[in-house]
Please model this.
Amino acid sequence: MSNAVSRVALKLPRHIAIIMDGNGRWAKSRLLPRIMGHRKGVETVRDIVEESSNLGIRFLTLFAFSAENWSRPKTEVRSLMTLLKKYIRMEVPRMMRNNIRFNVIGSRSDLPDDVAFALDDARRITSENSGMTLTLALSYGSRQELLDASRRIAADIAEGSLKPEDLTEELFSSYLYTTGLPDPDLLIRTSGEMRISNFLLWQLAYAELYFTDINWPDFNRNELMKAISDFQSRERRFGLTSDQIRSGSAN
Ligand code: IPE
Ligand code: IPE
Ligand code: MG
Model:
């Protein structure tokens, strides 16, 4: 194994989350309609999914459409939904070949029926795969997710199946859409924006954040490797001191 490969194998983030941003600006800078940026963005998704799976990343979560994105012009929303449905239908065979398990988080009931059904199919067909879990965040908003969890917790307390004192961080996490997924280790956002935009607010508590000026359609395998090697150079302290981390003890 080369040094570069063994380094990657050593400290690979288990879960990478990506805010795929900058499709519109990519298109605008080429005097193209925004949808062309989204189309090119789908090609990037294909490459990054395949590369992450080849590298041995266990969980990849992609922010594809936010709860707030419904307020965009109707034509853009409609084109995005069509693109999404086509992507899902086309990618299932490749997911099967790569042993990828497909998952979705967000508000399913907001999606057009045909899109929701395509997502259900992809989930069902890939459910026995044991490689990387690919999660698409669609019609996803983290505050909505936290509210939804709080409502269900309150209902369980009211009906007596849960006691307030039994609510732990772990149990709370199990009420979120991301139940079953570990928290992201690395968050990547493209296009130069340095904000979270209502993505995984609870789950990103201790993620390493990586921002790049590259627009999503120009993001590629090489840029992914740059983000991972940046992650590998960081010391994650989780509130401890550097000495404690290096000696491997919390005392
Ligand atoms: C990200 O690119 C894709 C979605 C939010 C659906 P944008 O469409 O936000 O591109 P910019 O930020 O306008 O350049
Ligand atoms: C965040 O991007 C959502 C997705 C990438 C799907 P936006 O482009 O919607 O975020 P803001 O509006 O710039 O914060
Ligand atoms: Mg944007």
Summary: The pocket of IPE (ligand 2) is lined by residues 19-21, 63-66, 69, 193, 195, 197 (CB under 6 Å). The CA atoms of residues 52 and 60 lie 7 Å apart. Residues 74-97 form the longest helix (24 residues).
